[in-house]
Amino acid sequence: MVAHLLPLAVRGAEVNRQGHRLLGPIDLDITPQGILVIIGPNGSGKTTMLRMLHGLDPLESGSLTWAVDENQARLRQSFVFQSPIMLRRTVLSNLTYPLMLRGEGSRRAKVRATAFAGRFQLEQFLPMSAGSLSGGEQQKLALARALISKPDIIFLDEPCANLDGRATREIESLLQETNSSGTKIVLSTHDLGQARRLADQVVFLLNGCVHEIADSATFFAEPKSRAATQFLAGDIIT
Amino acid sequence: MNDLIGGFREAGFLLVSLDRDLLTITLRSLYVSLTAVVIASCIGIPIGAWLALTRLAGRRYVIAGVNGLMGLPPVVVGLLVYILFSRAGPLGVLGLLYTPTVMIIAQMIIATPLIISISHQGIREIWDDYRDLLLSLNATKWQRMGTLIRDGRYALLIASLAGFGRAIGEVGAIMIVGGNIDQATRVLTTAIALETSKGNFAFALGLGFILIILAVAVNMVIHGLVRTERTALW
What we know:
The complex is a heterodimer. Chain A is α/β, with parallel strands linked by helices. Chain A has helices spanning 46-54, 70-75, 91-101, 106-119, 135-147, 165-180, 192-198, 216-221, 226-232; strands spanning 8-17, 20-30, 35-39, 61-65, 77-80, 153-157, 184-188, 201-206, 209-215. In chain A, helix 3 runs parallel beside helix 5. The A-B interface holds A 54, 56, 74-75, 78-79, 81, 85, 87-89, 97-98, 101, 129, 131-132 and B 126, 129-130, 132-133, 135-139, 143, 147, 151, 231-234.
């Protein structure tokens, strides 16, 4: 039995860029269960926090401690970017790419990718170039590509930011299904409706710091801080 | 104007008659330039990719230097290669002066900086798009380079074709190192220079048109082989 990647303990984590503190210090524990949603106003550090957790933005200070060693941890997590990054290849090649990076043979990777595409209703697009897909389809492909290597945790940066209602519903449904099958979901969103629909736990960020952290029902019913109350009421906060 | 019309007529005649000397010169031109470009691409593309992906101190100066070398005067390259391979030169013992091999070396030197520079630019643009994804997927440095070269192949093709364009149209260096020897090192450009100096403008123009046709044909064949522009999107 392979040990789960989580829990992740974040202690005193800070991210700086060009001498300015973008994030932190952050203290947070991410458990294996449920969907964790990060919310906050623009510029609060949602994207930076996700990138920091995934290792894309280096820590200035503090630590991230996974339940397994760091090399293992890096291989067992995925990231979906706000604007999906499509390889300049076919949909099938985009799906086989993570598998082939990990040494899987081309034929086997194609078989797996073709089977996996069905789950995301992408089969009919497999021979098409990824760049020709619509925004919603590209985001589904990015999600499928992130999940094909069966990560323990997936980070999503506002995955539905540019999508219409139908595409958003499809992505949300896939995320819930993914979470039910045991993959931890950590996503940022500025859409409070989406946060209400998906979150088991909410992290409210403000000015690069965790301002409030609570289970979803508690946070939306009785936010503790004034800033969170104002944010939920739709007020502009700084 | 008469020379121009005469040039068209001469080119048509040379093409229709399949003149044996012309065929030999054309094939030699192709052999020298294509070989030089293949070698220059093998050197230039990995260096361009490496420069795009590697953070090293003074990288911008290296890139500026390579870009500057794109304008290497072929005559100077020819002179340097001549000195290197002349009998008294350090590589004179190889006996390569006035052979197609030394012409390939000279053209390779001329084309390489151009290929490095265009490759670097092409790979850099794709790297900007792919960076986060490849880091997120834990691609190793070699895997990243392989991915960028594969997905940037059209940009790299353009780099190689630009190198070919520079090589096939070059005359100064190969005139010096090749010597424009009939049946040995004469190529289209040196033949044009010779015919012009003899006052055979129509014939020189005819050769010039054939050179243009050749350059365009090679571009089209290569584009056809790698199937560019088959679809509106990649």
